[in-house]
Amino acid sequence: MALTDLIPIPPNINPNLNAARQLTMKSLLGLPRGTFARDCRPVTHPVLRSLLRTADIGPLRVTGLAPAIESLREVVADIQQAQPEVFAIMGTAGMLCARLVRGSASSISNHSWGTAIDLTLNGILDERGDDARTTQRGLALIAPIFNQHGWYWGAGFPVEDSMHFELSDQKIRELHEAGAFGGGGGTLPEPSLSIGDRGQQVRRLQEALNARGENLTPDGIFGPATHAAVVSFQARNGLTPDGVVGPRTRAALGL
Ligand SMILES: [Zn+2]
């Protein structure tokens, strides 16, 4: 069986790790630039710009945020040790790219901060969002190594993206506390959800709103429809109608 053969995405991936949330990224790192489009645009935030590095890491030549590059160096060294056959055929389809998430008009890709990387095996890019939820076998072999270093595997996204790895929400917070972002960021955010967030927490929020009369597609993507539903729920329940699901809104929804 070749390392590029497709297998089902394994269960129990990303133990104790969440994708880096939009609010965490914005609050702790700042916005890479003012506006975003579908294609890659330059980073204009001065502190973030000063933290960008280009490096050769094993077979990968990447440009990304310095703390992510340093961590990736450790990940790739472990892959070389534990999975030398995958190491030998690894390539990259890019790291830094300030743009929107594919298919979204509101979510900013974590590639925008240079903390995510897309991998190829033998030059082949794993198909994103394939109906069967499959992944290249080689990616499944190295995903636990990324996880050990605090990287979240994109196979866990609502629309699976198994070529994609990014610094997890937990790792971003840890790096922030260690001062790795050069004082460019702000304070730790409240554990709240808002437009642009994605994942299981958003899916649970959508299901809770549906149980209270909304008709959202529980796709785990906090887009404009979810935002409108949150605002409406808040207005009906005497909460500040700001579309941000903080502790009070969460409690009112029984989450
Ligand atoms: Zn990606």
Pick out its properties.
255 residues; alpha+beta; Muramoyl-pentapeptide Carboxypeptidase, domain 1; 4-stranded antiparallel β-sheet; 9 helices; binds zinc ion
Q: What small-molecule ligands were found?
A: zinc ion
CATH topology assignment of the largest domain:
Muramoyl-pentapeptide Carboxypeptidase, domain 2
Give the averaged pLDDT, no decimals: 93
CATH architecture descriptor of the largest domain: 2-Layer Sandwich
What are the low-pLDDT stretches, counting only 5+ consecutive residues below 50? Answer: none
By DSSP (H or I, 4+ residues per run), the number of helices equals 9
Percentage of residues in helical conformation: 25-40%
The general outline is globular
* Secondary-structure element series: EHHEEHHEEEHEEHHHH
Total domain count: 2
**Major β-sheet profile:** 4 strands, antiparallel
